[in-house]
Specification:
By secondary structure, the protein is mainly beta. It has four helices and 29 strands. It has a five-stranded mixed sheet. Strand 6 and strand 7 form a beta hairpin.
Length: 578
Amino acid sequence: PPPSPPPPSPPPPSPPAPSLQPPFLPPPSLPPPFPPSLPPPSLPPPALPPPSSPPPSSLSPSPPPPLIAAWDCTTHPYPIQIIKGSSDTNYRTMQLNLGAGDFKEMWQWTTNTDAHPTMRLNSQAYNVNDGIAYGLFSTSTSSDPDEAPGYLCRFSHEQNSAVCLCQAPYWGFTATITRDGSYYLAREGGTRVHKLPAVHDIAYPADSPVSVSSLSSCGMTQVLSGRGTGGSIDVSSSGLTASDMEAAYNLTTDCTSCYMTSDIWTKDSSGQMLTWLPGNQNFADFIDFEYNNTTYLIALGAYDGSVWIIKLDGDGGGDVTGYAYSRVAVDYAGSTGKRTMAGFGAGYRYGTDPGRIYFSSNTGSGIFEVDYASLTDVLDRTGDDACDFITSHVCSQIPMQSPAPAPVTLKWVAAAVDPTQSNDGFSCPGVADPFTAPRPPSRPPSPTPLPPPPSPPATCYSFWGRGLCIDGTSGSQCQCSESSQASASLCEAVCSNTAGCTGYAYNAGADACKVYTASLTKWAQSNYLAYECYSRDSCPPPSPPPPSPPPPSQPPLPPPPLPPPSPPPPLPPPPSPP
């Protein structure tokens, strides 16, 4: 018999049924929290906590803002001069533009009141303790120190910002503020010097600003009387000649308003220099200079630039312990302008210990550095030619011997303002020295342009009808102006350019144009129907652009291809022959 067919293959095992884990189990039935016959008791609302009192503040109330802001040394880092020329109505605040080589006006002092007097301004200085500028303000135009009152005031870079504090003992034009905040003021260029310590600690008068006539005395104390040397210094044995002086000043010995004026220097007929009298001239301005833990006040003589060195006894200030003079030589390298010597009006300092100091010329010759190396060489000098701050008050032996001791060099560094005697100035000592730093461009960058003014609303004209626009034919009857225009568009242009135009009427056959400025009323008289009246209206706002059409739809993706059909099962083998 044929063999039995093989037993059928067992079916593949079924996958196990997923077992429910705890997250999928139904929660167990819990008994109700209260019997169903009893309603749940109503619970009282939770009690609110009592409002908490604010904790007591450990901080004192914020002080009010100061009446005067600190000088903006970031925006205005360059030397400042406050000047008034012979043709000026107001004092002008100027800042040096190094790139252009001149001073540019920042603003003018246009306010002059009893609480803010600006008839005269001088003796300005910058205080490193509060960053505020100080100076003398006066209600008088007189320069007489006994006639012109001087009021010490604070001011800033903001126009007409000044609040006065107290009355100084006299008017002066020579002043500075040292590191400890002491204000030093000289009378008549140095005949007397007074000091006011810690000006940054002076309180503003109540209800400031107040009339200066109500201000009390500043209480300044005198620290120096006189600037003399006990007579002329004999320099006949120094070997100095007229040629040496001309080389030192780039000026001839027959110059006027220079080193030969007022017997500051004298010579004999052979050109031998005979005497030197450095104290016989005014000194403006003071600038403080610190070297080897000593503070000095430095000033330059009006006629020969002699350096007046006043020695103080304190740390960054103090009382005067003595003074001495050094002669100078002027280095004009780089200057292409005038060379005169007739006064210095403002002093500047950049940096501290060591610092560099500069003075500007009243005659417009330029700004000069008191050369640091040559100044400190004079201060370091020992022996017979050391500075005598007590007796002879000169930095040489008496009489001056040959060779004459080396002078302090005044180096030209920049151009100055035009000549004026009514000026003073200051600088921000803590910023980079503009005379040694890379020079800025000749002109500051152009300011960001302002946005254009909004365009006036567009004008549209609508046809009002045939005839005139107002009952009346001409002049005051129609409240219109008449002209001959070659086209309606030209008549329309006349209306557009006429203030208050309400419309126009145009007769093409007669080139007649009537432009109206009153409300239109329409006048259709039969003999004026050749006119067409148009009213002037504001154009409606433009319609928004139509929305962008949606992007074209993507065609549907074709269905994925069907898998190829499975091959038919193989045919069973033919039966084996019996």
